[in-house]
Amino acid sequence: MGCCCDEDDGDILRHLMNSSSSTSSPPPPPPPTSTIISPMNSHFSALSSTDTLQIIFQNLPIPDLARASCVCRVWNSVASQRDLVTRAFLAPWKLKDVVGNPISRSFWRDNSLAKFAISHRIVRGDSVASLAVKYSVQVMDIKRLNNMMSDHGIYSRERLLIPISNPNIIVKRTCFIELDDNAKREVAVLYPDDVPDIKSSYVSNRISSEESNKKCLIP
């Protein structure tokens, strides 16, 4: 007489063998390349049309526009157009306009609030502390933006760049791309009534920026 356990062991063994054979089956083949949408796919010519790309890219923010410029030459030529870059740069802050072209192409990579600053022409009696109170910012933020080691650095400058803490300040404003020699950086500068100080030495820096290449490449 056979033991009932022998039959159970046989069933278990067959079940394990069937499970092993089913799990070792190869994965399904990948979809054919003709169904994958890619700018390198000749079967999808729309992504190589500059008109179509302009319609798509004009809705992209700065980070996505930068990524698009790295895909291929056609995409880069469209994503680097000044009007598209300017629109993407202005959109988050509802700026009215941006004047000038940056010397450094990396300027367009970042349009955070830290990219903007107010130009304050220094007059008698100004101090870093008093300006911090006037503009509701921190003393250390002013010194950091202007590359100042101490408060005494204010006396050797024509102006200070004031960081912006309230984004509402730049709504419907015009900013000017300038290279600040003291701050050692390019900044989108705001002036009172959107009128630059023509006596300032920074005008030459702004003019040199405006004469740079019209195409704004985004690495």
From TrEMBL:
Pfam families: F-box-like, LysM. It comes from the Eukaryota. Transmembrane segments: none annotated. Residues 118-162 form the LysM domain. PROSITE patterns: LYSM. This is LysM domain-containing protein. It comes from Medicago truncatula.
